[in-house]
Amino acid sequence: MAELIYSPAYGSYDFGAEHPFSPVRQQMALDLLAALGHRPSWTEPDPATRADILTVHDEAYVAVVEAVSAGEDVPDLEAWGLGTPDTPVVPGIDAAVRALVGGTLAGARLVSEGRATRVLQFGGGLHHARAARAAGFCVYNDLAVAIRHLTASGLWVSYLDIDVHHGDGVQAIFYRDERVQTISVHESGQYLYPGTGEIHELGEGMGRGLKINLPVEPFTPGDSYLEVFEQVVPPALQAFKPQVLVVQAGADAHFDDSLADLALTTRDYERLFRRILELADTLAGGRVLFTLGGGYSLHAAARVWAILYLVVNDLPVPAAIPPAWAERWAAHLGGKAATALHDPDPAFGPLARHDEIVSRNRLVATRLVDALAPYWF
Predict the structure, then answer these.
(1) Which H or E run includes 357?
(2) Torsion over CA of 287, 300, 86 and 291, rounded to 10 degrees?
(3) Nearest 5°: phi and psi at 146?
(4) 3-state SS, residue 145
(5) Mean pLDDT, the chain, integer
(6) Whether residue 336 has pLDDT greater than 80
(7) How far is it, in rounded angstroms, from Cα 161 to Cα 89?
(8) Given pLDDT bands bounded at 50, 70 and 90, which one contains residue 89?
(9) pTM here?
């Protein structure tokens, strides 16, 4: 069984009812698991300390977050990435985000101390935050804090980001670090926030060749996504030989997501999760830390993350969803409640540009592998 990390305090990381990054997503997924007969038990982590946060973030930036969290006026707030529509200022935000960082850090400690191999942190994934700036719903970078702990413990880390958005904050923080390989598979930044993550972003200094980006076309379906994932990710991991994988498992590449344009289904996600676990078992001694991340279709994210929990715990993935769950969450689901854990097959009609999308993705993956080959051999 995997170790599950969660705290009701995660619910305080809340930018308001109209903001898409809502703690309701985790609550729905946990309730779905209970409805399926797998009520989770979890370890409740301590919040991250100020010292933990400062392993990654600049002290001046942390002081700004603390000040606005306490209701103080800070001039030029947007220069720090705060007070924007994406990352608004809400009271108590410093404590709220420290709860999430503490969960991901607790997972890293379980792995580094040999107390667990598979860990699922049922929150976090704040991959856009920079060392001195908030961005894209992310105030502190829990993933970077956890990775910093793992490398300080002597472990070599491969960070794998399957969120639909480029994992730019984690990449930037470790851009020159030879102990951290970052791999991000995302919708191309030509079309989607944050506009980065091109194949030429390979790292600098000792980190050169270890920062790997696979941008895919809008409307990429699961067959093409999984094909190019297989073309790039396993050989990259084999070349680096990580001792632990850290995985940001955003659910926003699902075809129903409102903030992006990829076309993965729940079945694609199940295949992807199983493949990642196989790679962890084969290449990293089974050591893997998952976090959540983006996912803005409530009924899709809840199902994707329930599937993640089941797969990580080697539990069967059932077919039906109990109607009582949909009834409880009817107000949030807006009449789109699924009756099955998986999407219908097929989940949508033929894509007009399917063959062109597949061809373009293959070309990008081939160019990326060619660019990386000098660093792999």
Answers:
(1) helix 354-376
(2) -10
(3) -65, -40
(4) helix
(5) 96
(6) no
(7) 26
(8) very high
(9) 0.97
Answer whether residue 377 shows pLDDT above 70.
Answer: no
Residues near 24 by beta carbon (within 8 Å), at least 6 away in sequence = 298, 332
Q: 278 near 226, Cβ under 8 Å?
A: no
**Number of domain units in the chain:** 1
Phi, psi of 249 (to 5 degrees): -105, 60
Under 8 Å between Cβ of 112 and 155: yes
Angstrom distances, CA of residue 289 to CA of 3, 65, 112, 222, 354: 9, 27, 11, 23, 33
Across 201-228, average pLDDT: 98
Quote the domain boundaries for residue 174. Answer: 3-376
Among the listed residues 128, 165, 166, 186, the single catalytic one is: 128
pLDDT digits (tens, 9 = 90+) for 181-197: 999 999 999 999 999 99
CATH of the domain at 181: 3.40.800.20
Specify the DSSP element, H or E, that contains 109. Answer: helix 93-112
Residue 186 a catalytic site member? no
